[in-house]
């Protein structure tokens, strides 16, 4: 069984070997690394600089989601921008008001970027650098000066990376992003916001953030060579067949029930996602189930007429609930109240079947008064929303 | 000569019990017999009841680390709503499977979202709607939510008495306590499309009051999901049913309006911040902050009350789990009635209500879906917006309204009835009594 803590500990090691911690600790910057494949998208590494800046200890930070550093004064739109970037698996640079452990707020420039697996283009981690913004009198004027233009192009360069600089102003997608940043800049410049409301980082701070990101990426890239699971800062290949995007992984990771997604468009309808609760229920580990058919749960006394009913409902593309005897990895059996339903993607086509397991008579599943059946259906609903919304074609993600 | 402005449009069928007016009269089942929410069917009826905790502090996203549990559980309201909705889907209560409707993010600068929905407006005749009066009396000869079937109601939603979240899987409908309910919309525009109907049995017309708006904000906060948003359309801004309701659904995509840059224009009492939308086709205001959820709620309600009292149609989007609220006054229906909207835009038959204005376009024709572009979406929404000049005038009114709300409406919170009744309201009440008598043979109506 993979415990959550174990997953967090293994997150960096499995991609970059045991030596990576030491190398990362040698970097002076304030940064965190998060793992989108673990439920809750937790921080798996926090640098000394970050702990110093935030006032937290390592144990208080690792395992948490980065949003816990936000507070009442944090701009909601900026939070939305970060959420959006994670979803679209791209870099973002934004000023954020965060809170230290003692409750005091501080402005920092947050620069986040995804780390891609070279082989399959999957997002392995997100690196987030925090550069404190020094408070100083606001620059006035410069609304139409050369200075601002320079700032704009530099800004887009940092956010998009130099390779995309040329296409930036031809492509409306990118232009939109830049334009909204620009209007925010224009606005802050011309209106003379009071410093409490918004805080713009200087060019020096922006460069510092970009440099820190590059340093961290080169450490990660270097150490990924030793595990053979190469990573890079740019997506080198599109997501492979049957692989879910990190955004879909994050969304599905929030669903607490035991469930699997199987892909009917692939030979033998393999499992392409399984929830943490599924591993807990069955005793299998992630790598033991992904790519395999659900029949691994069947055994000697499994009623074949139930299996036939499942096959029938899959064929008819309808939902069904069956009571079926299943087996864990250790061969112990349990009665599974299994609910199966087809899940459509944004084009309205069936992309997956979801199977939600419920162990009959299991006391653990009594949660806050909702009947187990209702919780099962709510998992189906949450899966539908995640799959539909995340296949709508924004950004590079495919699901 | 007095003139009224009307438009013809196909009304959305929100309930399986909503028939064309002609059919309505023909129904004469003894004792109603359809398990509705009128007095005839309520005795003995039970529905799940969710009682939410009143939040005292609007603590930003999750509050500071020290106060947060290690692994926040999936918010309970979210699970309840999804589970009940999925249950109704599997029972076949919806007119179509919305997840089978094709949808996409339109490539372009703004990320407008388009959905092709060819089934939503079938089988209904266009009906005339009066669009020049934002406040109209409740008319019980028309469809209202007390007529929906109980199976369309997901749960009752109210404030908890002891300050903790409570859930009763099966609770009687207590007429005395004036329950608010959440019901499905049988013509969903996305998964989880529901209607929040505050104090359903009081048969309130479509108009915002402080208490109802706070209820809607609580629902957004309790669901705790940034992709579950609530919306409100006033009359004259594409509400089709004059019975107080909010809409809500799930769509895990950021709406263009949420991405639009903003310019802060004021910080009001209790730290409520107001900004103006920039670089967006519809002019509007964004409210956030506030020391408490109630501060934010009161400010926005006062702004809405001011608009409706000045007969200005508007739409409201409650976004980011109740932390950001968008308010857009609009003039599309008025332009349409006056024949000022271009034919090419009218031809799409898109009714620019809150979701369309927020950037989620539900299109009825394949052609419009295939040709959907930033430009087309912008063109449509630009017609919805007030002119800059008018918008500034309206803003001045709104700020006045908020200021007077701050001064005089304190006791409104305790008792919304304190406010002197207008003629119209008195008319409403008279009419309601009259209606009850008429309808008694069909369905013994609940009387207030």
Automatic annotation (TrEMBL), chain A:
Top-rank taxon, per record: Eukaryota
GO biological process, one term: response to blue light
Location of the PAC domain: 90-145, 318-372
Alphabetically ordered keywords of this record: Chromophore, Flavoprotein, FMN, Photoreceptor protein, Receptor, Sensory transduction
InterPro entries found in the cross-reference section: PAC (IPR001610), PAS (IPR000014), PAS-assoc_C (IPR000700), PAS-like_dom_sf (IPR035965)
Molecular functions (GO terms): photoreceptor activity
PROSITE patterns per record: PAC, PAS
Keyword Ribosomal protein: no
A GO cellular-component term linked to this record: nucleus
Segments forming domain PAS: 39-65, 271-317
Flavoprotein recorded as keyword: yes
PANTHER family membership: PROTEIN TWIN LOV 1
NCBIfam families: sensory_box (TIGR00229)
Name this protein carries in UniProt: Protein TWIN LOV 1
Natural source organism: Pyrus ussuriensis x Pyrus communis
UniProtKB/TrEMBL annotation, chain B:
Name of the protein this chain belongs to: GDP-L-galactose phosphorylase 2
Domain of life: Eukaryota
Family: Belongs to the GDPGP1 family.
Keyword Heme attached: no
Domain GDPGP1-like N-terminal per the UniProt entry, residue ranges: 77-249
Cellular compartments annotated: Cytoplasm
Record keywords: Cytoplasm, Guanine-nucleotide releasing factor, Hydrolase, Nucleotide-binding, Nucleotidyltransferase, Transferase
Domain GDPGP1-like C-terminal, first and last residues per copy: 256-402
GO biological process, one term: glucose metabolic process
GO cellular component, one term: cytoplasm
Gene Ontology MF terms: GDP-D-glucose phosphorylase activity; guanyl-nucleotide exchange factor activity; hydrolase activity; nucleotide binding
Pfam families, per the entry: GDPGP1_C, GDPGP1_N
InterPro entries: GDPGP (IPR026506), GDPGP1_C (IPR058865), GDPGP1_N (IPR058866)
Main location: cytoplasm
């Amino acid at each position: 069984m993979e415990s959550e803590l174990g997953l967090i500990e293994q997150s960096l090691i499995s991609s970059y070997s045991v030596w990576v911690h030491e190398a990362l600790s040698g970097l002076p910057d304030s940064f965190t690394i998060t793992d989108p494949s673990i439920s809750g998208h937790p921080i798996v590494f926090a640098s000394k600089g970050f702990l110093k800046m935030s006032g937290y200890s390592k144990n208080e930070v690792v395992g948490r989601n980065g949003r816990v550093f936000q507070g009442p004064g944090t701009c909601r739109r900026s939070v939305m921008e970060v959420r959006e970037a994670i979803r679209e698996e791209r870099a973002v640079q934004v000023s954020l008001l965060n809170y230290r452990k003692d409750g005091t707020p501080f402005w920092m420039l947050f620069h986040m970027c995804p780390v891609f697996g070279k082989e399959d283009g999957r997002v392995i981690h997100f690196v987030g650098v925090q550069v404190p913004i020094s408070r100083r009198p606001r620059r006035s004027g410069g609304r139409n000066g050369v200075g601002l233009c320079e700032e704009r192009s530099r800004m887009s360069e940092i956010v998009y990376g130099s390779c995309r600089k040329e296409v930036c102003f031809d492509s409306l997608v990118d232009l939109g992003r830049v334009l909204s940043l620009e209007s925010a800049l224009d606005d802050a410049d011309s209106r003379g916001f009071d410093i409490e409301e918004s805080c713009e980082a200087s060019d020096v701070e922006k460069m510092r953030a970009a440099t820190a990101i590059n340093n961290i990426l080169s450490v990660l890239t270097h150490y990924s060579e030793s595990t053979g699971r190469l990573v890079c800062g740019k997506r080198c290949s599109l997501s492979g067949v049957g692989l879910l995007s990190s955004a879909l992984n994050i969304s599905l990771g929030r669903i607490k029930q035991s469930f699997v997604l199987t892909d009917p468009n692939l030979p033998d309808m393999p499992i392409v996602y399984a929830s943490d609760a599924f591993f807990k229920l069955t005793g299998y580990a992630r790598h033991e189930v992904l790519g395999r058919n659900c029949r691994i749960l069947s055994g000697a006394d499994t009623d074949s007429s139930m299996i036939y009913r499942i096959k029938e409902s899959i064929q008819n593309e309808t939902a069904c609930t069956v009571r079926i005897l299943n087996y864990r990895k250790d061969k112990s059996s349990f009665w599974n109240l299994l609910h199966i339903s087809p899940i459509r993607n944004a084009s309205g086509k069936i992309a997956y079947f979801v199977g939600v397991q419920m162990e009959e008579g299991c006391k653990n599943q009594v949660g806050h008064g909702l009947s187990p059946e209702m919780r099962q259906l709510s998992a189906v609903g949450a899966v539908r929303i995640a799959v539909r919304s995340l296949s709508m074609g924004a950004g590079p993600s495919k699901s | 000569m007095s003139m009224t402005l009307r438009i013809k449009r196909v009304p959305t069928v929100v309930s399986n019990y909503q028939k064309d007016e002609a059919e309505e009269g023909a129904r004469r089942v003894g004792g109603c017999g359809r398990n509705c929410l009128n007095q005839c069917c309520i005795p003995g009826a039970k529905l799940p009841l969710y009682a939410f905790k009143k939040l005292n502090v609007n603590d930003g996203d999750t509050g500071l680390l020290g106060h947060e549990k290690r692994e926040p559980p999936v918010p309970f309201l979210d699970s309840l709503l999804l589970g009940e909705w999925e249950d109704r889907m599997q029972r076949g209560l919806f007119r179509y499977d919305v997840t089978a409707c094709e949808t996409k993010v339109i490539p372009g600068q703004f990320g407008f979202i388009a959905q092709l929905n060819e089934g939503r407006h079938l089988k209904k005749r266009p009906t005339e709607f009066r669009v020049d009066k934002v406040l109209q009396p409740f008319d019980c000869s028309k469809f209202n939510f007390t007529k929906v079937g109980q199976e369309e109601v997901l749960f009752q939603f109210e404030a908890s008495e002891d300050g903790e979240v409570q859930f009763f899987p099966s609770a009687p409908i207590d007429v005395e306590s004036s329950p608010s309910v959440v019901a499905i919309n049988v013509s969903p525009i996305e998964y989880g499309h529901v209607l929040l109907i505050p104090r359903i049995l009081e048969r309130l017309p479509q108009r915002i009051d402080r208490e109802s708006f706070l209820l809607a904000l609580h629902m957004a906060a309790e669901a705790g999901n940034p992709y579950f948003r609530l919306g409100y359309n006033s009359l004259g801004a594409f509400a089709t049913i004059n019975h107080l309701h909010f809409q809500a659904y799930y769509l895990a995509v950021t709406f263009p309006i949420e991405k639009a840059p903003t310019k802060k224009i004021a910080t009001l009492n209790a730290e409520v911040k107001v900004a103006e939308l920039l670089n967006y086709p519809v002019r509007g205001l964004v409210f956030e902050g506030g020391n408490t959820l109630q501060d934010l709620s009161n400010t926005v309600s006062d702004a809405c009350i001011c608009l409706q009292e000045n007969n200005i149609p508007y739409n409201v989007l409650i976004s980011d789990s109740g932390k950001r609220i968008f308010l857009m006054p609009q003039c599309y229906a008025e332009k349409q009635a006056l024949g000022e909207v271009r034919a090419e835009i009218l031809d799409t038959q898109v009714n620019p209500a809150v979701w369309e204005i927020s950037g989620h376009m539900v299109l009825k024709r394949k052609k419009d879906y295939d040709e959907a572009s930033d430009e087309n979406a912008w063109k449509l929404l630009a017609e919805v917006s007030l002119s800059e000049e008018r918008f500034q005038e309206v803003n001045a009114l709104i700020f006045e309204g908020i200021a007077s709300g701050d001064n005089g409406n304190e006791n409104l919170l305790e008792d919304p009835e304190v406010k002197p009744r207008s003629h119209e309201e008195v008319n409403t009440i008279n009419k309601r009594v009259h209606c009850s008598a008429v309808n008694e043979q069909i369905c013994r109506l609940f009387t207030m």
